[in-house]
From TrEMBL:
GO terms for biological process: anterior/posterior axon guidance. This is Netrin receptor UNC5. It comes from the Eukaryota. It comes from Takifugu rubripes. Residues 161-239 form the Ig-like domain.
Length: 916
């Protein structure tokens, strides 16, 4: 149909003629479908097409095509026209249904519009499409749908600027977002928290995206960021620091103090403080004096003085007389002292002056007083006796009770322990100094071996496994010292796989022995390594509980076998690694090391650790930079390696989400060619892979099977999140001897094929042709660059007939170490020395010479809170050191760090193996 519609539209036939042509074309087709659409039932022949769904405006996000839909009833045909040109029939997807309510036939057509189609239209402001529907009566056109390529520039046209404002002052922060389609929305953040003007009316966002703070408050101090976002990306401006300061103000004056002089002229003062309000955030202080003084005159104190005694009074009935005086000469005043002494005196009268009274009454009163005194003394004596007896009885009861308790703790007559029966362990002799044991005490491992009762293995099948008996783990040396057996595990991988294939946790693992490692481990720990991949699993000592033996595996999952969900700007930054079996109990976190290919700048990325659960669903378990020490996972990101502390085994993947276009992945560019060339054609293969060892290993193995050879050393290229493809081209070939058989001037690898990271072997093949079989020298330039981005150019100059396969071994990391190491052989620091270091550095030291200084010397300050959350921070630091320096570590450097800290443990690194 489009082949017919094209010429019709170009020749300008009328709509009626076009309908007749359509009917004719419908009847001329052999297919029953087209014949059915040529005519309508007679009941609907007079109806014009009516659009139920018309195409709407769409935006192309990155490289994802958009779909336009058009639905009409009744209609014999519907076709799309884009920018005046008919869309080819093969690009239409047609569905035919019947409206159950009206019995009218319904036709729905959809087409996909790609980014390339829109970009090919040069000189047009907009790309549009509309659909045309035909019936036997006539035609109808739908509305135009405009398709635009969505984007958002990186740089803001105007960014907010920091300000210092006074309290209650109005603040204006300007923001002009970057150019984008569709128009980006703008929101404001304060200290990474989104501002909501609806919930806080103190904030107001203008129509041109500026932020107004109506009255600056102290709580409004912070870093303000303008965020622009649309369906493509999200951009953040530089933060603008707003500092709200407060100028100081005087408080009210205090009351005047008392006069400084007790008597006479003195001073008194009052004060005020600059606290109403107190100056804050650099606000100005109060001006003026905070203390005022004034002259005062204090009245001197007057001490009181006695007046003269009055005359004696007449002798009274009690045969006494008295006289008085007053403190009135002078009276005390202004704090003076009162008069000292008595103001009343009495004196017995003489017998002549005392009146006579009845002697009998006086005697009776005397006798009554004596009797009363006697009764009081008797009652007092009875009370004392009762109290004394009660106390004595209570004391006897306590003594009786205590004797009963004491008899309960008397020795029971324990017999001496016989041989083979448990007996208390003798205590160690006291130490002479704090650190003297580090150099003088011989290591004693017998206490470790005797603490475990029974066999170390509960299963009877011990063939081909790491066997341990019930005897001691240490054999005596001639000099009386002890040594710990270093068990290297060399299990037969095929046998191990077949044995574990019957277990449920291993059924889903691939049988790829070259990309897996297996071992049997106990509380002494060990290490699993997949050679030449940069992937290893460190099992620290005491990570496996004592008395337990685990068979642990480590393997690399093939990316094409997994369905790792990646959304938006997310990308896989490293291998997918499985370690297990899942569900084993660990006392301490193990360390899983694997390569990554991010640019290493955490500001450019939101890095997430994903873990596959038992149902096969991927879950986010950690966001880099927001780790919680209470969680079972913690990551340390190095330049090319990610080290995961995990208390659980499972399948892990490192996924990065770019925060802006500055984020980049490291690509490793590797060039291969045919090892032997006997024809005129010669192929050069350029691999563009993630810069990780495991991908490089697989490419090397594949090329060896193909018989390829490495013709140049690998190169690194930063591939940015700019939505642009990667282009490769060859230039400057000698035209007299060589020519390219490619029709295009360059080759491209789509952006999303690289950014997604799910395809491992992305490469381009350049087929060259030499004009003569005698031509063996090839010189050219290989250019690799990202469209509108950075690139590299490599000069190639080699002999195609010369066998240079020896270069392969130079760039292929040949890891000859065992894939499984158990016990002390897996660690550089001997087990006993490690324990001494931990016991010395775990305890806090006032001068800081403890595990914190060790972390600083090893440049691990960022993880202080993580180390502090562990029972032994030093052991976790040493675990990380072991994971980092297994192949290249220098134990003398660690000894130098210990010596720099000032610990005598630095000397124990020089102890011989026999002493360890």
């Amino acid at each position: 149909m489009p082949a017919l519609l094209g010429p019709v539209s170009r020749c300008g036939f009328s709509a009626a003629l076009l309908v007749l042509w359509t009917v004719f074309a419908g009847f001329s087709r052999a297919g029953a479908e087209h014949a059915a659409t040529a005519t309508l039932p007679a009941a609907f022949s007079d109806l014009l097409p009516h659009f139920q769904v018309e195409p709407e405006d769409e935006y192309i996000v990155k490289n994802k095509p958009v779909t336009l839909t058009c639905r009409s009833t009744p209609a014999t045909q519907i076709y799309f026209k884009c920018n005046g040109e008919w869309v080819h029939q093969d690009d239409h997807l047609i569905e035919r249904t019947v409206d159950p309510a009206t019995a009218l036939p319904i036709m729905q057509v959809t087409i996909d519009i790609t980014r390339q189609q829109v970009e090919k239209i040069f000189g047009l402001d907009q790309y549009w499409c509309q659909c045309v529907a035909w019936s036997t009566t006539g035609t109808q056109k739908s509305q135009k749908a405009y398709i635009r390529i969505a984007y958002l520039r990186k740089n803001f046209e105007e960014e907010p600027q920091g300000k210092e404002v006074a309290l209650d002052q109005e603040v204006l922060l300007r923001c002009h977002p970057p150019e984008g389609v569709p128009q980006p929305e703008v929101e404001w953040q304060r200290n990474e928290d989104i501002l909501n003007p609806e919930s806080d009316p103190n904030f107001f966002v203008t129509a041109d995206h500026n932020l107004i703070i109506r009255k600056a408050r102290m709580a409004d101090t912070g870093n303000y960021t303008c965020v622009a976002k649309n369906i493509v990306a999200r951009r953040k401006s530089t933060s603008a620091a707003v500092l709200v300061y407060v100028n100081g103000g005087w408080s009210t004056w205090t009351t005047w103090s008392s006069c400084s002089a007790v008597c006479g002229r003195g001073w008194q003062k009052r004060s005020r403080s600059c606290t109403n309000p107190t100056p804050l955030n650099g606000g100005s202080s109060c001006e003026g004096q905070n203390i005022q003084k004034s002259v005062c005159v204090a009245t001197c104190p007057v001490d009181g003085g006695w007046s003269e005694w009055s005359k004696w009074s007449a002798c009274g009935a009690d045969c006494s007389m008295w006289r008085t005086r007053e403190c009135t000469q002078p009276s005390p005043g202004t704090g003076g002292k009162d008069c000292q002494g008595l103001d009343l005196q009495s004196l017995n009268c003489t017998s002549e002056q005392c009146p006579q009274t009845v002697s009998g009454a006086e005697d009776v009163a005397l006798y009554v007083g004596v009797v009363a005194v006697a009764l009081c003394l008797t009652l007092l004596l009875i009370v004392v006796v009762l109290v004394y007896r009660r106390k004595k009885e209570g004391l006897d009861a306590d003594v009786a009770d205590s004797s009963i308790l004491t008899t309960g703790f008397q020795p029971m007559g324990i017999k001496p322990s016989k041989p083979g029966v448990w007996a208390p362990r003798p205590r160690r002799p006291p130490l002479h100094s704090k650190n003297s044991h580090l150099l003088t005490i011989q290591p004693d491992l017998t206490t470790t071996t005797t603490s475990y009762q029974g066999t170390l293995r509960s299963r009877h099948d011990t063939t081909g496994k790491f066997s341990m008996t019930n005897g001691t783990l240490l054999d005596p040396l001639p000099n009386g010292s002890h040594t710990l057996h270093n068990g290297k595990l060399n299990p037969d991988p095929p046998e191990f796989v077949s044995r574990l294939s019957t277990q449920s946790y291993f059924k889903t693992l691939p049988r790829d022995v070259a990309n897996a490692s297996y071992g049997t481990f106990n509380f002494l720990g060990g290490r699993l390594t997949i050679p030449n991949t940069g992937i290893s699993l460190l099992i620290p000592p005491e990570a496996i509980p004592r008395g337990k033996i685990y068979e642990i595996y480590l393997t690399v999952q093939r990316k094409e076998d997994l369905r790792l969900p990646l959304a938006g700007c997310q990308t896989l930054l490293g291998p997918v690694v499985s370690c297990g079996p899942p569900g084993v109990v660990l006392s301490r976190p193990v360390i899983l090391s694997m390569d990554h290919c991010s640019d290493g700048c955490l500001d450019n990325w939101a890095l997430r650790l994903k873990k596959q659960n038992y149902e096969g669903v991927w879950e986010d378990v950690l966001l880099m930079g927001e780790e919680l020490v209470s969680e079972p996972y913690y990551c340390q990101l190095e330049a090319e390696t990610c080290r995961l502390f995990s208390e659980q085994l499972g399948t892990f993947a490192l996924v990065g989400e770019s925060l802006h276009m500055g984020a980049a992945k490291r690509l490793r560019l590797v060039l291969f060619s045919d090892a032997y060339c006997s024809t005129l054609e010669y192929n050069i293969r350029v691999y563009c892979m993630d810069d990780t060892q495991e991908v490089f290993k697989e490419v090397m193995q594949m090329e060896r099977q193909l018989g390829g050879r490495l013709i140049d050393e690998p190169h690194i290229l930063l591939f940015k999140d700019s939505y642009h493809n990667l282009r490769l081209s060859i230039h400057d070939m000698p035209q007299a001897h060589w020519r390219s058989k490619l029709l295009a001037g360059y080759q491209e690898i789509p952006f999303y094929h690289i950014w997604n990271g799910s395809q491992r072997y992305l490469h381009c093949t350049f087929t060259l042709e030499r004009l003569s079989l005698s031509t063996c020298e090839l010189t050219c330039q290989l250019c690799v660059w990202q469209v509108e981005g950075e690139g590299q150019s490599f000069s190639l100059d080699f002999n195609i007939a010369k066998d240079t396969r020896a270069i392969d071994a130079e760039f292929m990391l040949m890891d000859s170490s065992a894939s499984a190491l158990a016990g002390p052989s897996a660690f550089q620091i001997p087990y006993l020395i490690r324990q001494k270091i931990c016991s010395s550095l775990d305890a806090p030291c006032p001068n800081g010479a403890d595990w914190r200084m060790l972390a600083q010397r090893l440049k691990l300050e960022r993880h202080m809170s993580f180390f502090a959350s562990k029972a032994s921070p030093t052991s976790v630091i040493l675990d990380l050191w072991e994971a980092q320096h297994f192949h290249s570590g220098n134990i003398n450097q660690l000894a130098a760090v210990m010596a720099d800290i000032g610990k005598q443990e630095a000397m124990i690194f020089l102890v011989s193996d026999g002493e360890c």
